[in-house]
Amino acid sequence: MIGELDWVPAETRPDLLAEPVRTAPPQRAMVAEIDPELADTAAFCEHYKVPLGASANCVIVAAKRGGEVRMAACMVLATHRADINGAVRRHLGARKASFAPMAEATRLTGMEYGGITPIGLPKDWPVLVDEAVAAAPEVVIGSGLRRSKLLVPGAALAGLDSAEVIALGRPVA
Length: 173
Description:
Blueprint: E1 8-9, H1 19-22, E2 30-33, H2 41-48, E3 56-65, E4 68-77, E5 80-82, H3 84-92, E6 96-99, H4 102-109, E7 127-130, H5 131-135, E8 139-142, E9 148-152, H6 154-158, E10 163-166, E11 169-171
Parallel strand pairs: 4-7, 7-10
Antiparallel strand pairs: 1-2, 2-9, 3-4, 3-6, 5-11, 8-9
């Protein structure tokens, strides 16, 4: 297991999963309770001794073209930054792409900011999974709540119904 956390099978602790996540946890998903004040990636990884390369972030993107807005999720390792205005924008066929406003992201996902995860997102949202995330044996991701984290195989994220594996991350300088 990764880090200094008490991981248990996710199905045994539905109280640690946001409502949309409860209906769709991947097989072999583990969950651990954390201090919600330490949910942000850097603080979480430092406190719980989780390598940044074993943690993946989910960012919600609003892609615009011709007056229409299309939402998508992007999964990148914490050591990388999603190329929103390059790879993501081109992949979605958008004229402009940007991070979705916090209030809109939480309202549309039914999840807490700082805990948003690709599991349980609206079915029509593409989930763009960076190749490095898909190849990871296990990654720590959000659970939909700030007070817990999920541990899942990268392949489980790549196998989500709306997932598309692409090169979308670039190392943080």
